[in-house]
Amino acid sequence: MIARIALRSARQVAIRRLPVAAMASASRIPAFSAIRTFSATTKSMEKLPLTASDAQLSRVLKNEINIEVETSQENPEADSAKWLEKSGFQLIAKDGTDEIELIKKEGGEVIHIFFSVSDITNGDAYDFNNDEFAENEHSEEAAEEEEDADFIEAPPIRANIVVEKASGALSIESVIQSNLLLVENVTPYESADVALANTSEADFKRRSIYQGPAFSNLDENLQSALEQYLESRGIDAGLASFISDYANVRENNEYILWLKKIQNFVEA
C-alpha cells in the first residue's frame, strides 16, 4: 500500500469524484402509459456493447488490478496469525467493510479494539514534533534526515479501545504509527452500552460526558500507571505492530476488491 502511494505520487494521478445524478421524482401518469414506460425501460436496461469510454475505463481498471496483485505481499498474514494466537484476541472482520474489531474476554473483562483500514490511506502523518516529543527528538532530526529522505512513513491509524466490565467501561482513544501506540484520552463510562453502542443517541451521550484532560497533560506517574494497566492486558507495542501490518495488507485486499466491483459494473 505504501508503495502504491509513492507510485501514484510519481505518476501524479489525481483522484476525481464522479458527480452523482439526482433522482427524479415520480410523476402521475395513466396506468397504460406506465406499462409502456416499464416496457421501454426494460429494453433500455438490456446489456449493450461497451462504449469507447467504458472500454478504456475497463482496461485501466484491469491494469491497476494486475499491478496491485503483482505487488501484494506473499503470505503476509503468517506473522499476524501467530500474534493473534498468542494474544488471545479474536479478529472480527468482513470483506467489503472498513471497520475491524479485536475482542478478548479475560476474567470479568471484555476488551474491544476498533480501527478502520481506510486510515492508512486517508490519514495525515501524526505530529511527533509537539511539546511531548520535540525535546527528545529534535537533536536527532539532523542526523536522521538524510537517512530517512527516501522513507515513506505510513499515516496513523486511530484505535478506540474499550475495556468493558459489568460496572461500566473505560474508553481509550489512541493513535498507532511506526508500531507505537500513543494514548490521547482516557474516558470512564458508567454504562458499557454508552461506550460501545453505534447509535446517534449513544454518540450524543459520549460527546456530552467530560472527556478528561489530554493524556500528555497528565502527571507522569499517572501516565506510566495507565500505560502499565494497558500493557498488562496485551495493549502494547505488539498490538500496535499487528494493527499496522494487518491494516496495510487488508487495505490492499479491499482496494483490489473495490477495483473488481467497479470493473464488473462497467462491463456488465
Characterise the protein shown here:
The longest helix has about 30 residues, at about 235-265. The protein contains 10 helices and 6 strands. Residues about 10-35 and about 130-135 have low confidence and may be disordered. The chain has helices spanning about 1-10, 30-45, 50-70, 80-85, 120, 130-145, 190-195, 200-210, 220-230, 235-265, and strands at about 90, 100-105, 110-115, 155-165, 170-175, 180-190. It has a domain at about 80-135 and about 150-245: Mitochondrial glycoprotein (Mitochondrial Matrix Protein, Chain A), CATH 3.10.280. Strands 1-2-3-4-5-6 form a 6-stranded antiparallel beta sheet. Helix 3 (about 50-70) packs antiparallel against helix 10 (about 235-265). The protein is an alpha+beta fold and about 270 residues long.
Count of separate DSSP helical elements = 10
In helices, the fraction of residues equals 40-55%
Strand content: 15-25%
Which series of helices and strands comes N to C? HHHHEEEHHEEEHHHH
**CATH topology heading of the domain at 80-136 and 152-246:** Mitochondrial Matrix Protein, Chain A
CATH class of the domain at 80-136 and 152-246: Alpha Beta
The count of strands amounts to 6
Radius of gyration: 24 Å
Q: What kind of sheet is the major sheet? A: 6 strands, antiparallel
Report mean pLDDT, rounded to a whole number. Answer: 80
Could you state the oligomeric state of the chains shown?
Answer: single chain
Q: Please tell me what the overall shape is.
A: elongated
Strand order of the largest sheet: 1-2-3-4-5-6
Question: So, the CATH homologous superfamily of the domain at 80-136 and 152-246?
Answer: Mitochondrial glycoprotein
Which CATH architecture of the domain at 80-136 and 152-246? Roll
The unreliable regions are 9-36, 132-136
Structure classification: alpha+beta
Distance between the termini: 28 Å
